[in-house]
Specification:
heterodimer; A: 280 residues; elongated; B: 121 residues; mainly alpha
Chain lengths: 280, 121
């Protein structure tokens, strides 16, 4: 009889654990799927890769100095290997940095498909270039050959990569501001519709809101103008090579000015909301 | 002599294999019947419980569902909840204010790394 009781209790345990496990499995269906790679993760990758590059660069400098003080063949070889490792780490750094910028860009909501797509394709072409370039550093290359391959990177970075990075960083800021402005517009439109409904029903008065609309509308127009000016300025990054150094800061100025306008818009919209609530 | 030695060597004895005794269950019909009923009741209860849990979960709105657009939420607003509905926008505006305060047009933390391209010795 005792063994029977034991068997039944074991059976019950098995059955209840089965139900417990299946219910947990079902619960997982409702948990949001981890997207995995996001801008935070990409940034952490970049910070880690930068630390690897910094270490490789320090090692290169130490080995180079030692060789220059005592130019033996052995020390030259050690300096050559350190140079090779540092140059490879540098190409990795460019690739991972560009990926971090791209990932951040993918999370910005105030951009059109074209705006995002343009920046993506430019960044992607650079990622491919640095990936290919890294494979050009062959382990038994001479020091002079390493220097020659390295010279390509400087030219590439200054003429192509840097403008693309600046364009991408500008696009992130632009998208953030457009997104915030659009969110305000949505709330403002909703409140306006609500107000109009209530005015039609005789619950609310249109005064003083009809005058407030003008101020809020003017702020929205200023913001849109700033966005447009900034957009015109940044386009010179690829069209006018003579002003390449001044283009990025110039394109950021209207966005910087917009922060004051966005604060004003937020204050006005909050005031509008409060006034409606007080009249209900 | 060799033959004798060979004969004298002890024969290899295989160790006895212990017999595996299968447990014998001698249940009377009454006990088996009771156990069967108990299991059946448990299974039915567990099934009912799992269905209840599933139906509750299907009703529950996932936490990451998008916030309804203001236009949709406004049309059927009953008078008594107007203030509460408008409060959603106050929360959104507060969140937007935080976003504005955190804006960094230079994207300082994502600035390109400083690199020395002059590699030579």
């Amino acid at each position: 009889m005792k063994s029977l009781v034991k068997m039944i209790s074991v059976f019950f345990l098995l059955v209840s654990s089965f139900f417990f496990l299946t219910s947990n499995a079902n619960a997982q269906d409702f948990t949001p799927i981890e997207s995995g790679f996001n801008s935070q993760k990409a940034y952490e990758d970049y910070v880690y890769t930068r630390s690897l590059y910094d270490t490789a660069y320090r090692d290169y400098e130490i080995k180079k100095d030692v060789y220059l003080k005592n130019p033996t063949l052995t020390l030259k070889e050690e300096a050559r290997v350190a140079t090779l490792e540092m140059l490879r780490a540098r190409d990795d750094l460019h690739r991972v940095y560009l990926t971090a910028v791209r990932t951040k860009l993918s999370e910005i909501k105030g951009l059109t498909i074209d705006e995002r797509g343009g920046a993506f394709s430019r960044l992607d072409s650079e990622v491919i270039w640095y990936t290919d370039h890294k494979s050009r550093y062959i382990a038994n290359e001479t020091v002079d050959e390493l220097f020659r391959i390295n010279a390509d990177v400087e030219a590439r970075y200054k003429t192509k990569t840097l403008p693309i990075i600046q364009d991408a960083l500008w696009t992130i800021s632009y998208g953030q501001e457009v997104g915030i402005r659009q969110d305000h517009e949505t709330i403002y439109k909703t409140l306006t519709d609500f107000l109009n409904q209530k005015v039609a029903l005789g619950v609310l008065r249109i005064d003083p809101f009809n005058r407030w609309f003008l101020d809020i509308g003017a702020t929205l127009i200023t913001l849109q103008k700033n966005e447009s000016t900034a957009k015109t300025n940044i386009q010179k990054l690829f069209s006018d090579k003579n002003v390449i150094n001044s283009t990025y800061p110039k394109a950021l100025t209207p966005l910087r000015n917009s922060i004051t306008e966005l604060n004003k818009l937020n204050r006005f919209t909050t005031e509008f909301l409060t006034a409606i609530e007080n009249q209900i | 002599m060799n033959d004798q030695d060979q004969n004298q060597q002890p024969a290899q004895v295989t160790p006895p294999v212990p017999e595996v005794k299968k447990p014998k269950f001698n249940f009377d019909k009454k006990t088996l019947k009771m156990a069967g009923i108990a299991i059946a009741i448990f299974l039915v209860l567990a099934l009912i419980l799992s269905f209840i849990v599933k139906s509750i979960r299907s009703i529950k709105v996932p936490s990451d569902s998008p916030i309804p657009t203001p236009q949709e939420s406004f049309e059927p607003v009953p008078v008594s909840t107007e203030s509460g509905e408008l409060n959603i926008y106050r929360v959104q505006l507060r969140d937007l204010k935080t976003q504005i305060d955190n804006l960094d047009v230079d994207q300082s933390y994502l600035k390109p790394p400083a690199i020395n391209f002059k590699i030579n010795f």
